[in-house]
Amino acid sequence: MKKAIVLGATGGTGQVMVSELLDRGREVIAFGRSQNKLEALMAEHNHHLNLTYQLGDIFDCQTIVEAAKDADVIFQCANIPYQEMAEKLMPLGESVMKAADILGKRIVIVDGIYVYGHQVAKGDENHPQHPHTKKGKLRVAFEQLIFSGKWKRAKALIVRLPDYYGPTSQNSYLQPTLDGMAAGKMSIFIGNLQTPREYVYLPDAAKMIVNIADKDDSYGENWNIPGAGLISGKEIIRIARKVTGNQKVVIPLTKNVIRCMGLFDAFMREIVEIMYLTKEGFILSGDKYERRIGPIPATPFQNGLEETLLSLIGNKN
């Protein structure tokens, strides 16, 4: 891969993919619909000679075709808000896959773990897909679309991330907690503080995703992107207090509290059905990655959280 296009390049995952690809000397096209955000991304990378951008609409296949015609690989990192997922996820999949098929390109789809539902076995790529939520069932249909036989020329793979965090993260479950801690304010934590859960540091995820995309035999498959282990909310807050000096209260939001908030907030209303993950967790196995790609990059939580919080503090100053 010499040249890649990143769809949704100004989002949390898109930004870190752009950085990782540039660090490896690849040419990168940043694709998005906001010229201001794309120009800010260019400035953040000091107008790197290998970075260009293209304006376009992820739901307009033809704009993707025009932007991606010279790329070797398409990275689909654009995100759909929870409250719009039912209406927009499948059209997004149709648009990006049609573009990849017209061009005969490889395409990497960044997705999550809702397809699995409750964990009942080892969390590898063969874990049963028995989702009990509407988002999970929708994601199964999305996977079926990506790997549909109707695409004759596109070659796709799906990477699945658990909850994540990092300096570029924008809409993760940890974001309200880390934003509040960095700002010296009282903050919230979505879920209980005791359950050990898996989180992946986004720069680590980007390294793994590019490593997978570089392998010819990776396509046509699902790939798990595991984190650096398990950590509880209580331990995250302990580290955050040490980094920021913020000793103000952090309020854990239970399912019932979020359900009440959902009466007035569409986003919170959509979180209720997937609160099972904050209570049970889901642990992804990296065995396949280690067997076929190599060692898993795993930044310790202490280091990753420190880098994330210091970045947030710097952005607020």
Automatic annotation (TrEMBL):
GO cellular component: cytoplasm
Domain NAD-dependent epimerase/dehydratase, first and last residues per copy: 5-225
InterPro entries: Epimerase_deHydtase (IPR001509), NAD(P)-bd_dom_sf (IPR036291), NAD(P)-dependent_oxidoreduct (IPR051783)
A single MF term (Gene Ontology): aldehyde dehydrogenase (NAD+) activity
Highest taxon listed in the record's lineage: Bacteria
Pfam family, one: Epimerase
Identification of the protein by name: Short chain dehydrogenase
Species whose genome carries this gene: Oceanobacillus oncorhynchi
Taxon lineage: Bacteria, Bacillati, Bacillota, Bacilli, Bacillales
